[in-house]
Every structure is written in C-alpha cells, then in structure tokens.
Amino acid sequence: MTVSYERGAPLSRLRATGRVLLLCLLAAGILAAWLSRDALEPAAITAQIARYPAAPLVFLAAHVVASLLFIPRTMLGLVAGVVFGSWWGLLWAALGSVLGAVAGFLISRYINSGLIDLEHLPKIGPMLLRAEAGGWRAVTMLRLIPVIPHSLSNYALGLTRLSLGDYALGSLLGQLPMTVAYVSFGAAGGRMAAGQDGWYVPIAIGVVALALSILLPHFRKAR
What we know:
Blueprint: H1 2-35, H2 42-50, H3 55-68, H4 73-84, H5 86-112, H6 124-143, H7 150-157, H8 164-193, H9 200-222
Helix pairs in contact: 1-5, 2-4, 3-4, 3-5, 4-5, 4-8, 5-7, 5-8, 6-7, 6-8, 8-9
C-alpha cells in the first residue's frame, strides 16, 4: 500500500500541474484572441487560408483553435463559403465545427475530472444535468439556441457525463443549420465579388437555413 501511494502521489501532482498549465494556456490564448480581435476579419482569414495548398487542413486547424479561444464560428463559416464554395465549404465547415466542439469538450473534461459537481452549481447545473439525461437530442436542441456561444457550450458540456458519441452527433446536428446558412452567405459573397452569376441560389439556401435555426427551438419548446 505504501509503494502504491508513493507512486500515485507524484502522478496525481503531475496531472494537477498539467490541468493548471492547460488552463493557463487557454486563458492566454483567449486573451490574445480578444486583443487581436480587430485583425480577426473574414477577409483577412480568407486571404491567409487561401495561401496554402493544403487549405482544408489549415482551415480545420484554424476552426479547432477558434473553437477553443471563443472566436465566433460564424466567421469561419463565411470563410469556408468564400474559399471552398457551397458544397465543399459546407463539408469542411461542418467537420471543423464538430472537431472544435470535441476538442473543447475533451479539454474541459480533462481539466475538470470530477472537481466540479453539477448538483452544486445553482443555475447552470440543472440545465447541464438535463442535457446529460437527454443525450444527443438535448445537445442538438442546446446547439440550436443562438445566444449561447459555441465555445462556452463546448466547455460547459464537458463537465457532464455525456458520451463522446452523443455529444459529437448532437453537436453536428444542432450546428448544421447555422453552418449551412453562413457557408451559403460566404459562397454568395465570393461569387458576387468575382462577378459570377448564381449568387442568389446560395443566398436563398442561407435564408432558409437561418430561418430553420431560429424556428426549430421554438417548435421544440411548443411541443
């Protein structure tokens, strides 16, 4: 028993140190993103991503980083539409949004690791417990609420005991309408800037998707 304790104590301290360092890195990144917010414009990000041959991989990496640092994913949806067009843009934006959501979820679960008991959180705790009980359906509906920041949802849901599969599926479905909307708007803007025809089709798709993202939570609440 003594040997096990002596081995376990340094390992426990190492894990605690790792959690603190990771939390400090995230805080520093969020601060740096906030201080650089004037440079985080869709046009500037588009120009940077389009420079690289492996643009999809660069975009996915940027999406994950943005999800961790509270950078709005709507901005990246516009970028995906401009750089990749409607269909490829939707693919990369949807994949990037799920990867970013999973990254935040896993980091939050690692940092927390049982330190926070949801039953003792007065306001957010009951909501997260309901999401935990509802599985992927609850995650889907939570994602459809536009006023909840994407990154905040990732970190908050990481405190629950949701399975990774339920979380990833719910995130994909719940984020899809807004992803379709902003990718379509970005693709339409790219076509207009290039003087190409057919920009009205993605705008129409974007408007329908945006309307669905607004109406679905109300429909669910009414039921």
